[in-house]
Amino acid sequence: AEAREALKLQPGLPLVLSVGSIEPRKNQIMALRAAERLWNEGQEFQLLFIGWNAWNTEAFEEKVAALQAAGKHVRIVRSASDDMLSAAYRAARFSVYVSIAEGHGLHPAESLAAGTPVVLSDIGSMRETGSAGGAEMVDPRDLNGVVDAMRLLLTDDSRLAALTAQISHRPQRTWDDYAAETWDWLINGVEAEETATKS
Fold this sequence. Notes:
Elements: H1 2-6, E1 15-19, H2 28-41, E2 46-50, H3 58-69, E3 74-77, H4 82-91, E4 94-97, H5 106-113, E5 118-121, H6 124-131, E6 135-138, H7 143-155, H8 157-168, H9 175-198
Parallel strand pairs: 1-2, 1-4, 2-3, 4-5, 5-6
Helix pairs in contact: 2-3, 2-7
């Protein structure tokens, strides 16, 4: 309860969440532009970004300030405890990750592990993350597509429920699983390479 209070969420408004360092490749500006269009359509929700400024964030900061000045429910939390993050994922109707370049994509995986569907870039490793279910996949450079996906998850309870159900069928992997796979590769992979080198 304390963690949720610390997030200062607006009661009664659906929460759309985006977690991660704020920088151009994460493309949070696209989520802001999509949210602005949805607010202008009359959709009611709050948008919360949790993340620190990495670099080149001026356009993002200016857009947030302009939307706040217009009375839109958008906030940035620069630092959050694990409890706050967990509370945010659980409180969110869905999360948005429309990166144009990404490594593994830890935050979408965290959202899915918390049972919260995601609007997710249909690129690279994020495509792999989304393919197991629980994600509405989008082209991160297509504003209309991002708007449509966010609108769908804000307004269509049956689609949201279907994605939530998909999450419960996703393979659940733990750090122990990753460690075991890495260890297996180190032992068996190295042995296989040594055998191939000797042949």
